[in-house]
User: What shape does this take?
Amino acid sequence: MSMLTNELVLERIGAMQPQALASSETGYDGILNVETTREQLVALLTFLRDDEELNYHFLTTLNAIHYPDNQGRELGVVYHLHNWPQNRRIRVKVWVPAGDEHVPSITSLWPSSNWMERQEYDFFGILFDGHPDLRRILNVDDMDVFPLRKEYRLEDGTRTDKDDRFFGRDGHEGRSFD
Amino acid sequence: MPEGYGGEGFFATSLGQAVGLARANSIWPLPFATSCCGIEFMATMGTNYDLARFGMERLSFSPRQADLLMVMGTIAKKMGPILKQVYTQMAEPKWVIAVGACASSGGIFDTYSVLQGIDKVIPVDVYVPGCPPRPEQIIDGIIKIQELVKNEPLRRRYSPEYQHLMEKYQIG
Assistant: This one.
């Protein structure tokens, strides 16, 4: 078995799943980052998992991120895959606009993604289409915000005895993200 | 010793004082330890500080036999209803001590997921400041609880003030 390089992986994806490859780059850590669209996400991940040469069989984690300034690509989901026999990793990113945070669920590919997707729904409000039980997992059930989205304040609104000066906040209300 | 009349081989005092003395020196604490303050509590229970000197070597891990709820550590909002249930399950008379900054006020965790002090869900008798407090401070808090227990009228828990307090917390 030849050693997997980022070039080989890109070549293989380009040959087999060209429509899924929106863009790619190599991160500072040497790990290949691949961007795709939500329409192609499941097909690409299925290919990465099942292709004998690539063999990215393990879903390390998946996480969401919010960039409020990126027009039309405010919310993202990043999938971290791992090929254990060759110890190679890859990241797959998908971006969606705020207000239309639908991403297909991959619980049918990796059952372990069930709780991870629930967590990203809990904190970012990403709606994973096809998830069998998409509800909050870590926060209180009656929470009405998605706390890690940057439009919400991080501080607790019920605090009564905390002086902002002692928390490095010079008495202002809320937080500026400029 | 409480006020009373004593002589060779006997001592007479009011029933309330005698019961208070007995209660104060045989408190069964329920440790509700969620983070680092719990580690300090372990040291407090250990031989160096030895909380057993105060009549509390018997920790109660069932709320139904406990007299003193010791909340030590950060209480997440999701833990709030559980803490309240534990408090409700305790039999009267009962006392609560909030050990450390987090239990008292949320501490440094001024964030959406952390309860900003357990007195948002249950009444608290003694607050021990510190992050975390040293075992000496926890013992100081315990002694303050013992003073409360000694001097509390037997029927205080039936008083309108106490019932009002419980109503405020929607308990009972």
About this structure: The first strand of chain A starts at residue 23 and ends at 26. The CA atoms of residues 5 and 39 of chain A lie 27 Å apart.
